[in-house]
Amino acid sequence: METVELLRRVRQIEIKTKGLSNNIFAGEYHSAFKGRGMAFSEVREYQYGDDIRDIEWNVTARFNRPYVKVFEEERELTVMLLVDVSRSLDFGSQGQYKRDMLTEIAATLAFSAIQNNDKIGVIFFSDRIEKFVPPKKGRKHILYIIRELLDFKAESRRTALSLPLEYLTQVIKRRCTAFLLSDFLDSKDFETALTVANRKHDVVAIRVYDRRIAELPDVGLMKVYDAETLHEQYLDTSSKEVRRAHAQWWRKQTERLADNFHTSNVDSVSIRTDQDYVSALMSLFAKRR
Predict the structure, then answer these.
(1) pTM recorded for the entire structure
(2) Distance between CA 157 and CA 159 in Å, rounded?
(3) Which of these ranges, 20-34, 119-133, 194-208, 259-273, has the smallest mean pLDDT?
(4) Which of 39, 111, 174, 236 has a beta carbon 3.0–4.6 Å from 21's, enabling a disulfide?
């Protein structure tokens, strides 16, 4: 992507996702991911989205404006984005690629984190660890992350979900909140890695998928291309049996994922590319309160 076009898209993403973080997600993110019950460390002025239960009334009365308590865990919270950059994300039948939606969601979470004074870092992965961006604070760091989300080119096409989870467990020593963002099209088992990672950290899974992988249209002979394996084949989508078999495959994939998340005690949400990810994230946040 050329520099001018890249900067334009970075600015577009910043305007949209920062607005969502400021106006919609601030309070919900804070309630869903901020630890409570840790040692009180200091006070600061009230900011939009702060929990009113944290108001320090003595200081508020003294200065005649609201102040809130800051707890040690809140002050030091780290957020990690585990971002799938495999080739299967380069697909979209509803006007938006899976990768585009995943990028917007990641940017929204990043701005939500920084608004709450959290550190934010990223692990880009395929079937290898493609890049590690250590957690930091600040707008400059966020914009760097967005540029990488938009323009990063992975070396590998394939997916291995266990790798970023194992890497997270090894590299991030203190407890963090980690968002695993992927289409989860990985035939290999990753439940053990997910369980271990979630014992040490707070892992949240966000799956992005396209309508056409969940349900084949009846359009006759269709050429299907697997971007990760480069395998091509033709499907007769006019056949009810073919459509039924595909639907059954998708249902089993979804059930297997749900079982993995349940067994690992990981909160999750699935978002279709032609649906509103804002309401899906709001539901996820509400579930965690």
Answers:
(1) 0.79
(2) 7
(3) 20-34
(4) 111
